[in-house]
Amino acid sequence: MSKEIKKVEKPEKIKKGWDGISNYFRANSIWMLMYCTGCCAIELPQAMTSRYDMERLGMGPMATPRQADVILVTGYLSVKTLRRVIYAYEQMSEPKYLVAFGPCAINGGIYYDSHAVIKQLDQYLPIDIYIAGCMPKPEAVMNGFKDLIEMIKSKKATGWRKYRDNNAWYKANQIHALGEVRIKDEFHE
Amino acid sequence: MDINYILTGMLTGFGVLVFAFVWQTSLSGITRKVVGRFHKRYGPKWYQEFRDIFKAMSKRGITHGWVYDFGVMMALGGIMATVMFMPVVTFVAFGQLDNFFIYVYLFAVGMLGMAMSAVGSGNPLAGIGVMRALTQMVGYEVPFMVIVLAIIFRDGTSSLSGIAAIQQTGGILTWNLVKMPIGTIVGFICLLGMLGKKPFETFIAPAEIASGPMVEYGGKQLGMLMIMHQFATFIEISLFINLFLGGATNIVFFIIKYMIIYILASLISQAFGRFKIDQVIKYFYRWPIVLAILQAGLVVWGRIG
What we know:
The complex is a heterodimer.
Chain A: H1 18-28, E1 31-35, H2 44-48, E2 60-61, E3 70-74, E4 77-78, H3 79-91, E5 97-101, H4 104-107, E6 117-118, E7 129-131, H5 138-153, H6 159-165, H7 167-178
Parallel strand pairs in A: 1-2, 1-3, 3-5, 5-7
Antiparallel strand pairs in A: 4-6
Helix pairs in contact in A: 1-5
Chain B: H1 3-38, H2 48-58, H3 66-84, H4 100-120, H5 124-155, H6 160-167, H7 176-179, H8 181-195, H9 206-209, H10 220-244, H11 251-271, H12 277-284, H13 287-300
């Protein structure tokens, strides 16, 4: 882990007016990109369908990172999948949020001694909210999303701004884990 | 043309534009709620679509080059121009110009703008989506045009408000729904194809080609495309109402007819799977086209309907 680059904690400037209005829309219309390679993803169908009905909060699944507002990382990430999550996260348009499920994203969970799994997702990407449980029940998932909505409304979900301000720090960590992080533009090259 | 005509036309067109946006966007939200109830869900608020659109507009957009940006504006502009010509009840901007073929040509401007922009994003899935959308258009345009040409031949006018006025002369019995029932069924199937509802959702296909032409859109461009989608839906359903359901004598009837058609199409969409693109073409060139030619024959040679 490269410790030379310090993380910047900028004080949050609260802008009145347009930002407040757009935060209302952002909080009530959250489109998800589901990065479902971990086991916590099994709880999402229950949260989406008739029992818990995520759509009444204005949330819905989206097909591509470009369209999405929030990326759900459901559980552990291996070194290979971390690279894909970084690509997907960087493709999303700002403001963007990241929700991490389960203990695997905090400290590796039951994969804490695996050589192939990254332990702290927070070192590589900014996480706005963690949802506890192994796996979190649909109630916990819905509760987490309610909290995310509250955070967006009160301007506390600023992970995307942190990622922009501390980009060098995050990039150094990513390169340390992956060797190389290059966003490929396959279509325009 | 005097300045008065142009000014009144512009004002009426702007009014139609505002009405189209507010009404169609609200109805999209209501339909999401109705569909939710069909799934035994509670469903979103009725103004959810407004929130979605304004949220998308409030995000930071990226660009994939000037073709991508210009195409989005061309799509929105072309579709808005088409909406301004649409007769809504008695509000007809540019009275002598609401010819059916105006919609066919102006609508193509918007669609080509979107195709250009999507291909300009450089994503191969967008290219596949555009190709499928244009192929599907070839499928549904032919039976739809056969029916519309039969109507134009019978009525002797291609003005959309004229066709609606002829249907309003004798109450419900002179609607094309009653006079040309086979044609109305064909028109409705083609409407499903135009709207991209489920059996003919091939060019969007979120699970297969990641929402097709929309794959690279995010932020402001996606918001503009969503507004364009609402306007395009308004044009397609208003065309169907004016051609087959006798237009409307006042705004309440227009709203009721519009609501029934749109919610029916959305519910049909919930009951079907998705055709492959070759199945779409085979379907449209098998039954709708046969029925359309049968109906046109009845009208032109049989003088029935």
